[in-house]
């Protein structure tokens, strides 16, 4: 398998060429956040909040949603399959617990 990459002047990957998957192109906003990723006509779109946290990732009809607290810590991920993952943090912002569909995973 052969890989090739092209980057812009600030280091954002613009294209990835792979012998098996073909060419993937990437588009960024003015804050260097990935907006779209396209591989073989399949487009993945990303949205962000004002702090740069990812709010969603959508590929076709499948969307993953991310929720953040006021300290910009990821507190919930809801993937397209609906299997919700939640995170709990201590006072220092260290992740201390997680749950998948309400079941603790440590």
H/E element string?
EEEEEEEEEEE
User: What is the percentage of strand-forming residues?
Assistant: over 45%
Strand order of the largest sheet: 1-2-3-4-5-6-7-8-9-10-11
Number of distinct beta strands: 11
The DSSP helix count reads 0
Helix coverage percent: under 10%
How far is the N terminus from the C terminus?
Answer: 38 Å
What is the 3D shape? globular
Backbone structural class:
mainly beta
- Count of discrete domains: 2
Round the mean pLDDT to the nearest integer and report it.
Answer: 94
The major sheet is characterized as: 11 strands, antiparallel
- Gyration radius from CA atoms, angstroms: 17 Å
Low-confidence residue ranges: none
Keywords: Repeat
Pfam families: TEN_YD-shell
Protein name: Teneurin-like YD-shell domain-containing protein
Domain Teneurin-like YD-shell: 4-94
List keywords for this structure.
single chain, mainly beta, eleven-stranded antiparallel β-sheet, 0% helix
Q: What does this 3D model show about the protein?
A:
The chain is an all-beta fold. The protein folds into 2 domains: 47 residues, no CATH class; 58 residues, no CATH class. InterPro entries: T6SS_VgrG/RHS, TEN-like_YD-shell, YD. Keywords: Repeat.
Topology:
Blueprint lengths: L2 E5 L5 E6 L3 E7 L5 E6 L2 E7 L5 E6 L2 E7 L5 E5 L6 E5 L5 E6 L2 E2 L2
Antiparallel strand pairs: 1-2, 2-3, 3-4, 4-5, 5-6, 6-7, 7-8, 8-9, 9-10, 10-11
Protein name: Teneurin-like YD-shell domain-containing protein
Organism: Aphanothece hegewaldii CCALA 016
InterPro entries: T6SS_VgrG/RHS, TEN-like_YD-shell, YD
Offer a concise description of the structure:
The chain is mostly beta strands.
């Amino acid at each position: 398998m052969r890989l090739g990459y092209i980057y812009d002047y600030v280091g954002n990957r613009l294209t990835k060429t792979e012998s098996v998957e073909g060419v993937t192109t990437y588009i960024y906003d003015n804050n260097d956040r990935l907006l779209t990723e396209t591989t073989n006509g399949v487009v993945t779109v990303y949205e962000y909040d004002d702090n740069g946290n990812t709010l969603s990732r959508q590929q076709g009809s499948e969307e993953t949603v991310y929720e953040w607290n006021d300290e910009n810590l990821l507190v919930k991920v809801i993937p397209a399959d609906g299997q919700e993952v939640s995170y709990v943090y201590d006072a220092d912002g260290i992740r201390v617990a997680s749950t998948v569909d309400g079941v603790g995973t440590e």
